Amino acid sequence: MTEPTENNPFAQSFDSLETLAETINEVLGCPVTIEDAGHRLLAYSAHDPHTDSARLATIVGRRVPENVIASLRRDGVIQRLADSLEPIRVPAIDEVGFSGRLAIAIRHKDAVLGYLWLLESGKTLGGRELALFKQAARAAADKMVRLQSARRKSREGLRDFMWMLLHGQFGSEAPIRDKAEQLGLALPAEWHVVVVQAAGAIDERAEQRLLDRVSASRSVRPVLHAVDRAQAILLCAPQLAGADRRAYAREAQAFFARLARGEEDGVPAAVGSSAFGQSYAETPARHREALAVLQTKRLFPRETERAFYYPDLGYYRFLPAIAAQSRAEVFRNESLVRLRAYDREHDANLLSTLATFLAHDSNAKTAAEALHVHSNTLSYRLKRIAEIGGIDLTDMDQKVSLYLALKAERLATDQKG
Amino acid sequence: MTEPTENNPFAQSFDSLETLAETINEVLGCPVTIEDAGHRLLAYSAHDPHTDSARLATIVGRRVPENVIASLRRDGVIQRLADSLEPIRVPAIDEVGFSGRLAIAIRHKDAVLGYLWLLESGKTLGGRELALFKQAARAAADKMVRLQSARRKSREGLRDFMWMLLHGQFGSEAPIRDKAEQLGLALPAEWHVVVVQAAGAIDERAEQRLLDRVSASRSVRPVLHAVDRAQAILLCAPQLAGADRRAYAREAQAFFARLARGEEDGVPAAVGSSAFGQSYAETPARHREALAVLQTKRLFPRETERAFYYPDLGYYRFLPAIAAQSRAEVFRNESLVRLRAYDREHDANLLSTLATFLAHDSNAKTAAEALHVHSNTLSYRLKRIAEIGGIDLTDMDQKVSLYLALKAERLATDQKG
DNA sequence: GGGCGCTTTGTGAAATCGCACAAAGTCACC
DNA sequence: GGTGACTTTGTGCGATTTCACAAAGCGCCC
């Protein structure tokens, strides 16, 4: 079954698909392109300057342009390639800048892994050359299978590493560095954990799309990643190692804000990031920070609309601890209890008025506007609030106490309900 | 040695010193007073209306008036009583309203436990009656020793109970109720734990003085108590069982405030109280609350000057948790870091200006006055603070974040230093 | 010593606030 | 159905605050 080795220049182990492409180019004297099944560019021969605009666009865009694919599909070329084990001569399609090609599907066990294209620049290949071309396709299939398996292994290794980091299974920094080196992974000096919360479970395709989008940001590099149901967990670092932290932080925030709003070629999703970390032994803490951002944004969407990094949460990051302590205590804030009782008995809005007033920085004008009441109404209510609740609304300590109590109550009720 | 029973009407077990006093009165036909060694009234016969003003004052004040004691001491009466085993006839001292008395020291093993006084109204006792008087003194000594031992036992039982409560050694409410019943102690429905912090270690005498003062408040009843070095720990409840909680809380606060300022016949001391509790199984938590009040008052004396009950601490009670979480986090508040750096480099006061401004409820006028600067100076500094720190000083959330961060920093530095 | 940036203080106009007062609506209670 | 307490909205005015601008002081660097 196998061809004799002496006649087959492709019966060797190639470093990469690039090397194979160059070898095909040398053997057959024509520009060569290797694509995967999704028409993404995998490799191409660079030596030959003769090329058409379709190939140029493919190389620049790392993918066959949509209109070229559409034309080939319309003409039945893709179908014929899928059906045939032999090379097919594809005629030119001038509208899309596609000059004629010799093409063959790269196959492995009935599945099409990709396509091998050859631009017959000027000449026409004969029978022996066609056989060589077929052998080249077989070599490409071989290499692609190997690469895929290597990539899968490497991906699995990195994924396992990420989970071990997230679960804090290393204890100290040294074994983390060792493991990273073993995986051939350069650990950046500064990094942060980003969690992207999708609407539903994230599959491998969606994860890959997300990673591609992040990489395409040109500033954020996803160093490691993992998926936990609807959450993608990314360990991110500056794309450029020497970049200014502040500048990077701004860019990353801007990028993930666009991503969250669905402006990055995807659906809107909630996004939260940890603070920047140096020690990788603290990955679990950073992960919790990113989750805390998500949780806080869920509970206080308006207040934390612009928050992305954990430190941006400000005092909101203390709320869980505050709420927990409040829950453990036997008493409730007397002022709030009284105001709530008054609201209940008189069908009033003192509590929400107080909350709005405080949230608007004790500014009577804006608070009245937000409540859609006359500023005198607010003034009157505040006087009642001060009376009934025994509150001095010019005392920062009292106001902060009330403000935090209100926030903690909201956290408590929202978490229960 | 012992006198024959048939001749000794005091050779029986008396219910109390009061019964003994009444019996002496019946046997000898004169008003009787029994005092302890400190001239505090222990018992007196009530049947006979003939009495002098010194005795009257003693009964009303539960103690022999100072001037009477001074006179007796000056005249060597006390000394003679201490030296003699026999009754002594004390002449009248008209200046202090003291008519003549028959007196004898109540002794036990060389120690004087107290004094027995007899007002010979009109008549003069003879030899047999003097012997009876001596027997009465011996009966008083006997009763006092028994009482003292019973009291000591009961006191020790209560002290042990208090410590068991404070250490949470009961687990649930039922065994606490059982133990209290066994000790003959009625547990009030609502109570609070008060900790009084003295300058130095509290001995038994000081503890007793404190308890007397609290009892004398007429509103606060110390139900149980314990001493831990310089801290007296009191479990207090309303003196009147049915009293209004609010009213009691106010009175207790007022009383302990006076006590703290040293206005209650003692040295100034720090005082803190827990919230009100119902479940005695939560005594340790209430104790911690009272200690938290003391600790907070130590760290933030000005801000918590008027706080007494734990709930009065407001958000200050969250500060330890906030400071602990901040300490665990890798980042510091960026705004404060930048402001501190600016202050250091330019010898400025932006940080303290911000702190003062926030503490004065964002009131430019009062904050400027507190800082001793022109209000425009403050305004200028605030503009700089907003610029350098990237702060919006009209945003309640940002202000609260900064305020808490400043407080937590202060807590952290004060606890370290 | 002069320039420059930062800071403080002073001044005045504009905006805002606090508050008194009035009118009218709501609701519970007699 | 009237009464009175509570609430909302409106008007107006004096006090206060805010803000922009100017002047001057201070310290640093060339």
UniProtKB/TrEMBL annotation, chains A, B:
Domain CdaR GGDEF-like: 172-295
InterPro entries for this protein: CdaR-like_regulators, CdaR_GGDEF, PucR_C-HTH_dom, PucR_C-HTH_sf
Gene3D superfamilies: PucR C-terminal helix-turn-helix domain
Transmembrane regions: none
Domain PucR C-terminal helix-turn-helix: 350-408
Signal peptide per UniProt: none
This protein's name: PucR family transcriptional regulator
The organism's place on the tree of life at top rank: Bacteria
UniProt record similarity statement: Belongs to the CdaR family.
Cited Pfam families: GGDEF_2, HTH_30
